[in-house]
Specification:
alpha+beta; SH3 type barrels; Fumarylacetoacetate hydrolase, domain 2; 2 domains; 8-stranded mixed beta sheet; 5-stranded antiparallel beta sheet; phenylalanine catabolism; hydrolase; fumarylacetoacetase activity
Length: 432
């Protein structure tokens, strides 16, 4: 794409170039009530105050709906639909464009600039959406294969259904938290000696806390009970994407998951990044995912539509010593199924979606060791250690470890990125 230039000074390494303009929920010292903003460079553009001071005077379409920017979630804005998201984002780009058609609104208006532009470091970030339901999928083919090899061997690594449908399970929306929220190590039932003839679990803090490098996608258009969403209509139901760390307690999971799947091992915390990157901002980076040699059933057949995105992803670990190591670097192209396919499959039997519902991609891993998106893969379930900066080692996460996921598309100066998705592991509560 031809790079756009803003009148605002934006570092070329910023994830929040004028090509992006992700939406989020902030509060500030000036306005302590949570409200809508977009990120631009090192600033948040306060859309609540912007609307109150006639910032949208030249965009007639949004004027009857300006109250959405005073809400403490993005749900009301999301519900306006993708055509409205598109025109609002394009209008804000025009306002921020150097010598653009609306330069008098902000570029030449010192007073309003002072009111609506707040440094990101002075903003408190909040969960961007009110999440009614959350579903986690398992669309990372390389991750699914690697984990399958660990537990079932290479001949049976993938279950027979894997390439026919997006495998998923219903997660717990109540424990989805915004980046920066500490994650408490969970207690749970753990089988300390899986090889013992008599299986007797004990209750203790998890010893195998793990990360899961994922993407999340929010829904902006509801569907009705009993009515499937067609694969060609599915993109209009998608609002935008976030980074996601779906923390896992692997030892709790190993004991509890038969026969109904994960439960307490997955519901103690899921961290998402605070800024929602709109689907339209990602569209220039649309690409194909992993080729599926299994012919897709008609309700999943996208007919060569590019529904994946060339997002470069990375995971860093900072220990209590202050030293930081990169654990993984991979691409969002390493998914077998797309979010439209996940939505189409999820609604196939008539399950309805609501505005704000969240879907997770599943752990994203590449083929090489440096591309593995969780410690379960990297350490072969604790058999080998990962070497960190300064000589430290890890099999799984320790208390005080801080995990940071980042992701971005494009080139310096025109990056469309997500910022960071950060969480610190805190000690488990002492059971009475």
């Amino acid at each position: 794409m031809a790079p756009l230039k803003s009148w605002l000074n934006i570092d070329s390494s910023s994830h929040f170039s004028i090509h992006n303009l992700p939406f989020g929920i902030i509060s500030t010292a000036r306005n302590p009530d949570a409200h809508v903003a977009v990120a631009i460079g090192d600033y948040a553009l306060d859309l609540h105050t912007f609307a109150q001071h006639n910032g949208f005077a030249s965009l007639s379409m949004i004027q009857p709906h300006q109250a959405v920017f005073s809400q403490n979630t993005l749900n009301a804005f999301a519900a306006l639909g993708r055509p409205m998201h598109r025109v609002v984002r394009e209008y804000l780009q025009s306002v921020l464009l150097e010598n653009g058609p609306f330069s008098d609104i902000l570029q030449n208006n010192d007073q309003l600039r002072q009111l609506v532009l707040t440094p990101l470091k002075h903003c408190q970030m909040h969960l961007p959406m009110a999440i009614g339901d959350y579903t986690d999928f398992y669309a990372g083919l390389h991750h699914a294969y690697n984990v399958g090899v660990l537990f079932r061997g290479p001949q049976n690594a993938l279950q027979p259904n894997y390439k026919y449908l997006p495998v998923g399970y219903h997660g717990r929306a109540s424990s989805v938290v915004v980046s920066g929220t500490p994650i408490t190590r969970p207690n749970g039932q753990i089988l300390l000696d899986p090889g013992a003839e008599t299986k007797h679990p004990s209750v203790s803090p998890s010893r195998k806390i793990d990360i899961e490098l994922e993407l999340g996608c929010f829904v902006c258009k509801p569907s009705a009970l009993g009515q499937p969403v067609g694969i060609h209509e599915a993109p209009e139901h998608l609002f935008g994407m976030v980074l996601m760390n779906d923390w896992s307690a692997r030892d709790i999971q190993a004991w509890e998951y038969v026969p109904l799947g994960p439960f307490n091992s997955k519901n103690f915390g899921t961290t998402i990044s605070p800024w929602v990157v709109l689907m339209d901002a990602l569209e220039p980076f649309a690409t194909v995912g992993i080729e599926n040699e299994v012919p897709q059933m008609p309700y999943l057949d996208e007919r060569d539509r590019k529904s994946h995105f060339a997002i470069d992803l990375a995971v860093n670990l900072t220990t209590s010593s202050g030293k930081t190591s990169q654990l993984s670097k991979t691409s969002a192209k390493n998914l077998l199924f797309s979010f439209p396919q996940m939505l189409a499959h999820h609604t196939l039997g008539g399950c309805p979606f609501n505005v704000g519902d969240l879907m997770g991609s599943g752990t994203i891993s590449g083929k090489s060791k440096s591309e593995k998106g969780c410690l379960l893969e990297q350490t072969e379930n604790g058999k080998v250690e990962v070497e960190l900066e300064g000589g430290e080692r890890r099999k799984f996460l320790e208390d005080g470890d801080v995990v940071s996921i980042s992701g971005a598309c494009g080139e310096p100066g025109a990056l469309v990125g997500f910022g960071e998705c950060v969480g610190e592991i805190r000690p488990a509560p002492v059971l009475q």
